[in-house]
Amino acid sequence: MRRPDFLAPLIIALVSSVVVIEAMLQKVGAARIIRQSLELSGKASQMTPEQVDLAVQRAATITAVSMRVMAVLGVPIFLLIIAAVGLFIVNVILGGSANFKVCFSVVCYANLVLLVSAVLGLVMIMFGDVEQFNPENFVPTTVGFFLNPRETSKALYVIASSFDINRVWFMILASMGLSAAAGKKVGTVAVFLTFLGVWVLLVLGRAGIVAVMS
Predict the structure, then answer these.
(1) Position 113 in a domain
(2) How many independent structural domains does the chain possess?
(3) Is residue 64 part of a domain?
(4) Is residue 2 assigned to a domain?
(5) Where are the alpha helices (DSSP H) in 89-162?
(6) pTM of the model
(7) Any idea what DSSP says for residue 136?
(8) Per-residue burial over 96-132, b = 16 or more CB atoms within 10 Å of its CB, e = otherwise
């Protein structure tokens, strides 16, 4: 296998993340994002209009800063976690042999498929209805995008929003790369099904927590 190289795809992912967040902050605005989140979570209905305005005003600046920080840090953290999980699946669960640098390179390149989501996200931000903008689910690649969060149970909405066609494609590409990284001693299907199992468990766990707290 060629020498692992993760710098180029990582930079591309970082730039796309920053561009999407900056577009969101400029077109939608941190204040509107907070207000929409409060309304969708149901918290706004428990507050007076004055309390909502005050909460939005207090949180707007820190929200904008935290979004920009996560735009930069979120991508490498996410990819490092996926690479670590992939390494564990290949070496520990499936008995293969791969090193972390190769696994990280693989997931960085597989992550390029999520540029489709970034492009669609920009389209939705620039040309979509700002008043109806859902900061938690604004890209039409998930089932949840087509559901009304106000009329759908929170647990079901979490599950529907988690099933993203581009995330599945990302897992497929990562599984193919990890299989190659292990010298084909571990099959692509086995890696993918293990990844999928972990993902489903996480989604169901999150949905369970939301159901208990709602």
Answers:
(1) yes
(2) 1
(3) yes
(4) no
(5) 100-110, 115-127, 154-162
(6) 0.84
(7) T
(8) bebeeebbbbbbbbbbebbeebbebbbebbeebeeee
